[in-house]
Amino acid sequence: MRNKRRIKFHARRSATDCEINNMGTREVSIGKVDKDKREFTFTFMTDEPCDNFDLPEVCLCRQENVDLTRLKNGVLPLLFNHNRDILIGKVTDINFEEHRAVATVVFDDDEESEKIYKKVVNGSLQGVSVGYRRLKTIRLYKNTEYQGLKYERDIYLTTKWQPYEISIVSVPADPNCGIGRELEVEEVKGEVTMDLETKKTVNEKAIVKEEERAVKETEKKTEEKAAEREVKEEKTFATKINVNAEKTLSEDDIVKLVRKEILERMAKENEPINIDLGKTNEEKICERAVDGLALQYGIIDEKSAVDGANQYRENGIRTIAEDCLISSGDYNEKSLRHMGNAELFEHVVGKRSVGSEQFVSVIDNFANKVMLNSYKEQPTTFRKFVSKGVNRDFKPTYKYRVGLGGVPELMAQESSEFKYQGASDARVATNIQTYGKGISLTREIFINDDMGTVVKFIQAQASGFERLKEKMFYDLLLKGAGIFTKAHGNVAEKHKDLTLKAYNEMRNLMVKQKDNDNLAYIGVYPSFLLCGTDYTYTHLQNLHSVSDPTQSNANVTNPLYNSMQVVSTPYIEDETYYLIASPSTMEGIEYTTLNGIDRPQSRTVQSLETLEVKVQFWNDFGFNLIDYRPFVKNDGK
């Protein structure tokens, strides 16, 4: 219902305190639903202009603008259609984000509340309305600035208000602008000509009277609901312990039941408690800003981004810097609006405020996301051939080549005597080292919003780690001492060419390798053929041809058809090639990392001497030869 009261204002063109109806409502729609907890979360107020009066009204939606006394005192009810006689739940929490007030409510489980709850879950009831009291409202004239705010027409600006109740509503009063009906306050019909002081007195008395009545009715309903809930819980407990709810218990029965209940509760005290502290506003801004930048530069897709990331996708790095400074509480929109890019980033990069730290955190998380994405996309071959090991520090760690020989022996009949084999395991030292590099993000990069260049730098660093690992593996395999020797029996001697006979010779050399005690064959077969890129097709033809490529008769079957996977690398520059066993059957070269962390890591720090942010990348790893037996070499000529 539109407010019929006319209001007198002074003619001066400025923001002025004004006398308007102190009660109002607004309507929005249901948001997130948690059926298990009977809990709903939705926006119930925004600072968008709404036509509550002859001029639009704006209610500011920051924590300092809203009086939450009723919420803290537990007297902020959830009603149906603003009817104080239909109490269906309570408001448990109110938060503020991005110029919105967001409420969390919980439905009661009585019969009447259950009906409305089901309609909300089913979608037939989606309207939400809030009844609130205006504590401080001014008239703000067109293009007049007030605390950094300015509008293109006259408005009422409510800078302090108090929510009284939130309602689930069936029919919005004004679907175009979402305005709900006014709370029932005695109205003066027709034109009001009384002076402002008299009008203020009448209005205040009506408000106080209405407030007292609303509080009493709400408290009464709350007490009745609590009493009903207590009776229901008693009946439920009686049913649980197999006692008729209407039966009168003796004192002995009561003592036994109480003792049982106490023991049950003591047992539950040791159960783990999961506590979800939720995310702070600063953490939410950081997540959205990081994913917004990642969307902008194609690092992730929209399915992987958090809600709200698109607002930063469409804006530059300046918007992120401003939001970080504002969320710290040390800056406001007005003070930042007049700053140029140079001055702004001097504050955000050079000063050690909370907002500055938050901005650096955004850059740190963004750099880490870009680095991980690029690290995964760099193609390599070394991982096919290596086993994985873990060292806990940078000291040499000794690992053992466990003997694969020895066979069980026949035991004497009805004897429990075992024969034991002595340990003959050979130990091998493994080492890791740290490899890293950094980039400096100067103030000019942020001023020019040149984050695309930053992305390219990080991508180059990330893929560089994988390229380094590839090179280190091949340096060890191709140039490492002590792998391929005549004594080891893993170098082809008879057939130094690219033929099936050469493959067969190399295969037999691997199969006939013996255990550490030289007692039994280890039984390891090659899984890969590794060669240079110049000879890839020759080996593919030899191994993937159904017929024997050495025979003129196409009906002769290729005995090595699909027996090995061909892998090529530019690090082998001649005809040399290798047969390699799968690392899951026998370890040859171990890729060792610190505490199992395979990927590069990053951190971002602010420079103490210059206006720049430094991003550092590092990875702790090493390649270590464990055993020569999974490898066989052929010079190819």
From TrEMBL:
It comes from the Bacteria. InterPro entries: Peptidase_S78_dom. Residues 208-235 form a coiled coil. Residues 72-180 form the Prohead serine protease domain. One of its GO terms (biological process) is proteolysis. GO terms for molecular function: peptidase activity. Keywords: Coiled coil, Hydrolase, Protease, Viral release from host cell. This is Caudovirus prohead protease. The lineage of its organism: Bacteria, Bacillati, Bacillota, Negativicutes, Veillonellales.
